[in-house]
Write a structure and sequence with these properties.
- This is Probable electron transfer protein.
- GO terms for molecular function: iron-sulfur cluster binding.
- It holds the Pfam family RACo_linker.
- With 674 residues, this protein is an alpha/beta fold.
- The protein folds into five domains: 106 residues, Beta-grasp domain (Ubiquitin-like (UB roll)), CATH 3.10.20.30; 75 residues, Ubiquitin-like (UB roll); 139 residues, Nucleotidyltransferase, domain 5 (2-Layer Sandwich); 125 residues, Nucleotidyltransferase, domain 5, CATH 3.30.420; 116 residues, no CATH class.
- Helices cover 27% and strands 22% of the residues.
- The strands form seven sheets. The chain has a six-stranded mixed β-sheet with strand order 14-13-12-15-17-16, with helices on both faces.
- A hairpin with a 4-residue loop joins strand 1 and strand 2.
- Helix 8 crosses helix 15 and helix 11 crosses helix 16.
């Protein structure tokens, strides 16, 4: 359980972690790590705002086993609170629960004062509606003794005649309701018909005339879930909402979750349940926003990376954890919503977009549909940067795809002061070239840290860490002003110029914030970013090798992270290849846009299915040149690629010649730049 009187504790969904003395209250551990858990009673067990729960199981990547009995039994104060206001299943009060052993602690969303910001809005896109669901108002002949035909049969014939369908069937769960609805409507009813690639099915029925019908487009990301409610008739997105993916409590990245299922196979249903529950909660919010009913939602389209795709469907993802990374199912298909426990119309349908390959999922397929590189003569690079970067490269002549294991560094994990995008996270950084003093912007505050209004507003959110876009900018700025070399080594000699360079064992760190919670960029942080960006860049280079083109005409950065990073800084550190910066930009939640396109137009479904069959998948782990490209990409921006177009716009530091081994402290002076 615990070693030498210390226990390791990981808080989710923030990912913050540390070691604490046995007997430490969970709330105290959270505060020590800057994890915001609400508490207004001073830790007396009265307010109940600090509720937490323990994620049980073996977490192989973290090397720990977490269990409920790694917390001390309930205190008297906790028992009194539970008697007055019963705690939800497996919940504890963080101020009373004391640590006895290693733990993974889940902080429920209602106990988080600084919640992660879900940056997956619906992008503006005109989509011509041709939905799979249509509605037909018909009058059905009343039964009589002379014609002993069933009510449902006469209904089916009336709808088939109105819609011009010869092979219409009725969804079996609807049959018990048909007679009551026909009589309630005075024999005039409206039927919803689902018609896609398969035979048409009458899926819902209500008395009277037509009503607004809605569809749902959902992007299940490893960190966040985004859902969009669309009017099926007009194609308009009427409401959008997002939430953190609750599966994060079982592992921060995809392979951690695969490992968790391998180590704890009996908990697979729980991973499926929590993501479906989160989606059902989003549906409730969406329909409430437009004053609709859940039963008004009759169609849905879902995308996600392969692991999320399988877990949502209740499929064991362990085969995706090792070569040959076999998918249980890759083609597009349609399921009744009732088979997925989705709380919408009983007869509703879900269209699952196809996956491209074992590590390139339906989200990449949807992003490809959205950006349509297959319809252009330009060589387009489409990248969705996450814990596993999905890459598509090509044009109308040829399309290739690959994935690269970038890890969670760009989302704040594996960074000493890293966090996900939430109020209080540093998202923008600038460093003065002469004084080496930083200024920064924090999510939730509009002013820069050196502006007059910052001090008045920062108390509302605090400065709690640094998120992915901030990590990229601070590394790029440190490189541009000479604080780190092209090999990523922090120059300890600059401690003579600025007190912000401090010794950290055998290496040095740069102090970004020295008030409140100290925030520093360590040598290990730099290495984590180098490893992540090198993995992505090497994947792109392999696709370029296979395509036979060195040039890239345009770069599209998909996903929430891709939309909020500055392309200039991404190119400075060598995260993306050299390209005309005017042709580099974020495209927002392209996967969500592709899901909406497939939801609203049946031809887009055929288009994405055909496109996925054309894409050539490159397995980076099997390519002999991957290691060569990876090593070259560890340098800033790259050891061999010249980045001429970037240098035409930005003055990059020349090679420094700074001596010293990788990451070791070095006090020698840098050659003077001219």
């Amino acid at each position: 359980m615990a070693d030498s009187g210390q226990a390791r504790v990981i808080f989710q969904p923030s990912g913050r972690r540390g070691s604490f003395a046995i007997g430490t209250p969970v709330l105290d551990a959270a505060r020590a790590l800057g994890v915001y858990v609400e508490s207004v009673c001073g830790g007396r067990g009265i307010c109940g705002r600090c509720q937490i729960s323990v994620c049980e199981g073996t977490f192989a990547k973290e090397g720990l086993t977490s269990a409920a009995d790694h917390l001390a039994p309930a205190s008297d104060a906790e028992a009194r609170y539970a008697a007055l206001r019963p705690l939800a299943d497996r919940r504890r009060l963080g101020c009373q629960a004391r640590i006895l052993g290693d733990l993974v602690v889940d902080v429920p969303s209602e106990a988080q004062t600084n919640r992660q910001i879900v940056r997956k809005r619906a992008e503006a896109r005109r989509i011509d509606p041709d939905p799979a669901v249509s509605q037909w108002t018909v009058s059905v002949a009343e039964p009589d003794m002379e014609t002993p035909r069933g009510d449902a049969d006469r209904l089916r014939e009336a709808v088939a005649a109105a819609a011009g369908l010869a092979d219409l069937s009725i969804d079996p769960p609807l049959l018990p309701r048909v007679q009551a609805i026909l009589r309630k409507g005075g024999w005039t009813v409206t039927a919803a018909v689902y018609r896609d690639a398969s035979a048409p099915v009458l899926i819902d029925l209500w008395p009277g005339g037509p009503k607004p019908l809605y569809g749902l487009a959902v992007d299940i990301g490893s960190t966040t879930i985004a859902a969009h409610l669309c009017d099926l008739a007009s194609g308009r997105t009427v409401a959008s909402a997002g939430t953190s993916n609750p599966q994060i409590r079982f592992g921060e990245d995809l392979m951690s979750r695969v490992s968790y299922v391998q180590m704890n196979p009996s908990r697979l249903p729980e991973l499926t349940r929590v993501v479906r529950d989160a989606i059902n909660a989003l549906i409730g919010k969406l329909v409430g926003d437009v004053d609709a009913q859940r039963s008004d939602v009759l169609d849905a389209a879902f995308v996600g990376n392969p692991v999320m795709h399988h877990l949502f469907l209740g499929i064991d993802p362990t085969e995706l954890g090792g070569a040959p990374f076999a998918l249980a199912v890759s083609d597009a298909f349609v399921l009744p919503t009732r088979d997925l426990d989705l709380d919408i119309s009983l007869g509703g349908r879900v269209y699952m977009l196809p996956c491209i390959a074992g590590h390139v999922g339906a989200d990449a397929a949807a992003a490809t549909l959205s950006e349509a590189p297959y319809a252009s003569d330009e060589i387009t690079l489409l990248v969705d940067i996450g814990t596993n970067a999905e890459i598509v490269l090509g044009s109308r002549d040829r399309l290739l795809a690959a994935s690269s294991p970038t890890g969670p560094a760009f989302e704040g994990a594996e960074i000493s002061c890293g966090q996900r995008a939430a109020p209080g996270a540093i998202e923008r950084v600038r460093i003065d070239r002469e004084t080496l003093e930083p200024r920064f912007k924090v999510i939730g505050v509009d002013d820069w840290s050196d502006e007059a209004g910052f001090a008045d507003r920062i108390d509302q959110v605090g400065v709690t860490g640094i998120c992915g876009s901030g990590i990229i900018e601070v590394v790029a700025e440190m490189f541009l002003c000479g604080l780190i070399t092209e090999d990523g080594v922090i120059d300890g000699a600059l401690a003579e110029r600025t007190p912000r360079i401090v010794r950290n064992g055998r290496t040095f760190s740069y102090v970004l914030v020295d008030e409140g919670i100290p925030i520093s960029v360590t040598q290990t942080d730099i290495r984590s970013i180098q490893l992540a960006k090198a993995a992505l860049y090497a994947g792109v280079k392999l696709l370029q090798d296979r395509l036979g083109f060195d040039r890239i005409d345009r770069i599209r950065l998909a996903g929430a992270f891709g939309s909020y990073i500055d392309p200039r800084y991404a190119m400075v550190i060598g995260l993306i290849p050299d390209c005309d910066l005017a042709h580099v930009g974020g495209v927002g939640n392209a996967a969500g846009t592709g899901a909406r396109m497939a939801l609203l137009n049946r031809q887009h479904r055929r288009e994405v299915e055909e496109t996925v069959r054309r894409i050539e998948k490159i397995e980076t782990a099997l390519e002999p040149r991957f290691q060569e490209h990876f090593v070259n990409a560890m340098a800033l921006p790259n050891k061999v690629d010249p980045f001429d177009r970037l240098r035409a716009e930005i003055v990059l530091p020349p090679p420094s010649g700074l001596p010293g081994e990788d990451g070791e402290a070095n006090g020698r002076r840098r050659r003077r730049r001219r």
